[in-house]
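input
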Amino acid sequence: MAVVLGAGVLCAGGCSRGTRVVDSWKAPDVAGPLHFKKILVVTVHPDVTTRKLAEDELVRQIGAGRAVAGESVMPGDGRGDPKSLAAKAKEIGADGLVTMRIGAAVARRAPSAGSDSYAPDSFRRDPDRNMFASEDPGGATPSERSVSIRTDLYAVAEDKLVWSGVTESFDPRDTRSLIAGIAKAVRARLKKDNLIE
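output
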C-alpha cells in the first residue's frame, strides 16, 4: 500500500473490481507529505492465513525494504490493541504503522453508478469489531460480494493516528487482489489529501 509513503509502489495489476474509498479522515494538523522509512503493517483478523496473505501483499505493495509484516514480529494476540502495536512498531524501529480490519462482508446487489452503499457510521458505532457478515434479503448471489475494510495510518513517534479510511470492494477474487485494490484506492486518496507524493 504505497499508501505508505512516497515511492509509487502500488497495485500494478490484479486489483479487485470496484474498490473505492467511501469515507476518510485526516488529522487536521498533519501536513504532508509523510516520509516513513520503515512501516509495520498489521491486519486485524482472526484467521492466521488471511492475516499472513494480507500482510504479505501489503509488504509487497510498499516494498520489502520499507515494510514489515506484523505476523513476522507479533504473531497471535495484541493485534487489535493500539498500544501493543505502537510498542512493537517502536521496538522494531518503525516510524509508520498501517492497520487494516474488516468492517463488513455482505452478499448483496452491487450499487448502480453514483449510488452510495456505505453507511458512514458503521465503524464509528463499533470501532473494535473485526468482522460482520449478513445476507441481503434481496437475493444477491455470492459473486455480488461487498467487503468493507478500515485502514488506519499512524505516525509512531508521535503516537498519532494521521489518516483513517474505509474502502468498499465488490467481487474480490481473492485476498491478494482485494488488498491490491485497497492499496490502489487508499494511495489515490492519500495523494489527494497531500500525505504522499
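quick obs: The domain at 20-192 is CATH 3.40.50 (Rossmann fold).
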